[in-house]
Amino acid sequence: MSLLFFVFSTFTYCQPIQFDTTAFQKEQLKKNRIKWVAAGNIGGYGGAMIGLYTAWYRNYPQSKFHSFNDWKEWKQVDKVGHLYGAYIESVGSMELWKWAGMERKKRIWIGGLSGAAYQTVIEILDGFSKDWGWSWGDFTANMIGSSLLIGQELAWNEQRVRIKFSYHPQFYNDPVLQERSDQLFGKNQSNRFLKDYNGQTYWASISIAPFLKETNWPKWLNIAFGYGANGLLGGRENMATNPGGGILFDRRDIPRYRQWYIAPDIDWKKIPTHRAGLRFLFTFLNAFKFPAPAIELSSGKVRFHPLYF
After folding, report:
1. Where are the domains of the chain?
2. pLDDT in tens, 70-84
3. Pairing mode, if any, of strands 292-298 and 257-266?
4. Which of 96, 170, 220, 299 sits at a 20 to 30 Å CA gap from 210?
5. What is the pLDDT of residue 55?
């Protein structure tokens, strides 16, 4: 009897110990991952900011903190770029915290606000730069970008509207225009990818299936609405002067106009897979608009692109 009791008590005691050990290991893994993600965020972003300051801000004159109004520059393409940047950084941060095992609402808020926080640091650096300044327009766009992620996650637990980016290189046959473009946006494509507003298009890629009941619409097939601009060879106008008032560049004859697009797109996250590598790849691909046929509306005219980037 005593032996039976010993076997039974040992068995029942060992079961919770085994379960608790597994739970303990999972909790430790979660804590370790959270530490890795936190360290990666601090170290990676801190290093990036130091590199940005060293490579960019340090080479320009500094001043007291000040603000300036740049709302009318670049047909607001730069503002949409800020919205996109904050949104994508928020998505990346939230996905990392999700991988780390952080609770849903915590990862939504911490990850979601990360994008706005990262972008705000850049705004502060701008505020101390004599040639620029703190931009309330940029700050507002940053907050909207992060809010788009947070609002959708809280409401739907998914991103039904994804903000995406595409780029096509811009070249000019006129050497004067090409030189002006090189001065403004850089000569290599890596610089122009980030700076040339004439080649950038920003998209709101909308998942259709979740809004339709009892539909055979493919979950991965989105409809995207894009915005861009062209003819931008200056912030406010296509003219530049030197400090003495002399005209360095004057092509106000070139029209500056907005471009609107509609095109099909892919939500890569809606393609099912059990492979971690593919899930990471799909998250990365969702930052960019998939090349596809597109319809453009600009200057009162409609144009069809067989394949638009």
Report:
1. 1-158, 160-309
2. 999 999 999 999 999
3. antiparallel
4. 96
5. 63
pLDDT, mean of residues 113-123: 91
Cβ atoms < 10 Å from Cβ of 282: 18
DSSP string over 129-180:
BTTS-B-HHHHHHHHHHHHHHHHHHHHHSS-SEEEEEEE-----SSHHHHHH
At residue 26, the 3 state secondary structure works out as helix
Name the token pair of 158.
Answer: 């998914």
Buried b (16+ CB within 10 A) or exposed e, 76-99: bbbbbbbbbbbbbbbbbbbbbbeb
Instruction: Identify the helix (H) or strand (E) that includes residue 225.
Output: strand 221-230
Residues in the chain: 309
* pLDDT, tens only, 283-298: 999 999 999 999 999 9
16 contacts: CB under 8 Å, gap ≥ 6: none
Q: What's the one-letter identity of residue 6? A: F
Whose structure tokens read 């000040």? 66
Q: Are 92 and 153 in contact (CB under 8 A)?
A: no
